[in-house]
Amino acid sequence: MTALLGTHTVDTARCLHYKDRVYRNDGEGGADIAPSFAELRRWTCQAGDDAAAPFDEQTPMRFDNAYYKDLVARRGLLTSDQALYGCGGPLDHLVEMYSKDSEAFAKDFARAMVKMGGISSPPGMPVEVRLKCSMVYY
């Protein structure tokens, strides 16, 4: 799952989904977020709940390991992203490895995608292929 979340390196999130993270503790963000990053994202949110911000500011259109570098720097956009790093233990080591070794990330990501592709849906559950992840097709 840690490798699969690397897809966030080429995506965006709306303020609605990250504003609690950047406005925590009287508007200054929490201890698990870099203060300058929280301030930048609060500035983005001034445009409203639909204002989008990239998960990876440095290379938002390139599939790379910058997402993990951001997590190490406490610049994860979503609370669920930053939860991958900062508590110690195996996940921290994995995130640190991915932040330093883009080939290890790419290899593990490919393996995880193949493994996930082999998961079949429960019997009777309709299968939906989304061309745009934010839209549900009925």
TrEMBL record:
Q: List the disulfide bonds.
A: C15-C45
Required co-factors: heme b; Ca(2+)
Q: What is any one GO biological process for this UniProt entry?
A: response to oxidative stress
Name-wise, this protein is Peroxidase P7-like
- Describe the family membership recorded for this protein in Swiss-Prot or TrEMBL: Belongs to the peroxidase family.
Annotated binding of heme b, by residue: H8
The main place the protein resides is secreted
Among InterPro entries, the record links this protein to:
Haem_peroxidase (IPR002016), Haem_peroxidase_sf (IPR010255), Peroxidase_pln (IPR000823)
Query: Which Gene Ontology cellular-component terms appear in the entry?
Result: extracellular region
Give the residues the record marks as binding Ca(2+).
Answer: T9, D56, T59, D64
Which part of the chain is the Plant heme peroxidase family profile domain?
Answer: 1-137
Organism phylogeny: Eukaryota, Viridiplantae, Streptophyta, Embryophyta, Tracheophyta
* Location in the cell: Secreted
Reactions catalysed, as given in the entry: 2 a phenolic donor + H2O2 = 2 a phenolic radical donor + 2 H2O
> Any binding details for the cofactor?
Binds 1 heme b (iron(II)-protoporphyrin IX) group per subunit.
